[in-house]
Amino acid sequence: xxxxxxxxxxxxxxxxxxxxxxxxxxxxxxxxxxxxxxxxxxxxxxxxxxxxxxxxxxxxxxxxxxxxxxxxxxxxxxxxxxxxxxxxxxxxxxxxxxxxxxxxxxxxxxxxxxxxxxxxxxxxxxxxxxxxxxxxxxxxxxxxxxxxxxxxxxxxxxxxxxxxxxxxxxxxxxxxxxxxxxxxxxxxxxxxxxxxxxxxxxxxxxxxxxxxxxxxxxxxxxxxxxxxxxxxxxxxxxxxxxxxxxxxxxxxxxxxxxxxxxxxxxxxxxxxxxxxxxxxxxxxxxxxxxxxxxxxxxxxxxxxxxxxxxxxxxxxxxxxxxxxxxxxxxxxxxxxxxxxxxxxxxxxxxxxxxxxxxxxxxxxxxxxxxxxxxxxxxxxxxxxxxxxxxxxxxxxxxxxxxxxxxxxxxxxxxxxxxxxxxxxxxxxxxxxxxxxxxxxxxxxxxxxxxxxxxxxxxxxxxxxxxxxxxxxxxxxxxxxxxxxxxxxxxxxxxxxxxxxxxxxxxxxxxxxxxxxxxxxxxxxxxxxxxxxxxxxxxxxxxxxxxxxxxxxxxxxxxxxxxxxxxxxxx
Length: 570
Description:
Blueprint: E1 2-9, E2 13-21, E3 32-36, E4 39-44, E5 52-57, E6 62-69, E7 73-82, H1 86-89, E8 92-97, E9 100-104, H2 109-115, E10 129-140, E11 143-151, E12 161-167, E13 173-175, E14 192-202, E15 208-218, E16 227-234, E17 241-248, E18 260-267, E19 272-281, E20 284-292, E21 298-306, H3 309-313, E22 318-327, E23 330-338, E24 351-359, E25 362-365, E26 371-372, E27 380-386, E28 391-396, E29 410-411, E30 418-423, E31 426-431, E32 439-442, E33 450-451, E34 458-465, E35 471-475, E36 481-487, E37 490-494, E38 504-505, E39 513-519, E40 522-527, E41 532-537, E42 546-550, E43 558-565
Parallel strand pairs: 10-29
Antiparallel strand pairs: 1-6, 2-5, 2-7, 3-4, 3-6, 7-8, 8-9, 10-11, 11-12, 12-13, 14-15, 15-16, 16-17, 18-19, 19-20, 20-21, 22-23, 23-24, 24-25, 24-26, 27-28, 28-30, 30-31, 32-43, 33-42, 34-39, 34-43, 35-36, 35-42, 36-37, 37-38, 39-40, 40-41
């Protein structure tokens, strides 16, 4: 059915849309047209069977008429914006429903984000579509910029774009236009690939660029694909790329595939640009080091780190999403081992850190033992950045163990922002304190071990004191429950999905303090001021109706503090 609706526009308004022909549709007219009076300004004459990208920019003040064929047009994502006010308003999402054009701007986002019961409220998630790794994290002026792996055409992993959002406080986000697209439309080739992970780089002169991996059209997710490194320069308002060049394509000896996720910095001591890349060398997960005199021409320097044999034996295909940074007088290497399964617990795709020294292009860890960063495992692909004062990080809350149920418009969330430090030779991660501005009501009562939260709010719970043997059970309105317990010097997490085949437990330590955030199915745990962390994601409990806290002994001294937290989107 042909639909029409008038739309007021101003000079500079831009519309971006991903659309395809509906299955079996035979359009009798052009499926999408923009008119000014009788004059056609923009027309899609015929749609392909795969999602393709379309854009229209308007140069004038007028009332337009948008025509579309409900029976022929399938739209995955549609929005409008104007570069004159995008920094204040972001984009306005649009949907073609019931013969109407529905607008969803920043004023409507709180309602949109609250409407889905299982969508976390403290953390960033895309408006629609699939999201995974955070990319290009940086602070420019007073604003934080988040780029992220994004597939706009479904809630499953697909051809990778870079989504984009900005924030003043790392909690309340403003959606920007999709920033980076794959080099070509991979859907038209029946292939995967696209704009993979990378980092933001501020050069010596203060200019900003992004290094990232482009996976060229691939027909196998695990072998025989090609990955190259690119340098992308953004427009002055960071709305779109204005230059993009290939800077590294050849792999060193022993590397056949998995050559990706650059982290670039300038080494002032040695006067070199440096890059680390995740890879595998002769089958061992490894981090590669490259050097450059200008940031464009790169030379392989060395294998910066090669994982012990147990990771290869445990199924690790490669190292990915490496991070390498200097904080508190130490160099810290972050690495994830994709495909690795820990035999003792069954956990997989764990994230690790090594703290050490870096001189003359050589990294020497203080210890041969890697530090496990998050014993819950749903904290992965972490990327950190220096905001001018602090080393901060975000990670993807997903680990392929449990898939999101059908029926949602999106998939994927990020962790709470974390503040990184090195204490006693180990990396420590604490929640960035901006969450305290979201506190609404204190929930705890003296001498009570039961807490009744608001079903719609996130909850923050902190325990201090004699925590040996302590147990926290949180129960949802549907009866599903999580359990957090200290058992023989370890923290153990159990979620409703667990069947006992995988044991989510920490290393051995002496627990004196623990803060727990529950946010519509996401559980983030910070023990001993971030010395031990654990993250889990459940799709079976979207609220908390009751929290029961049980002390290890009747005489244990326990201090409880609990808060409800409002949505960061409000």
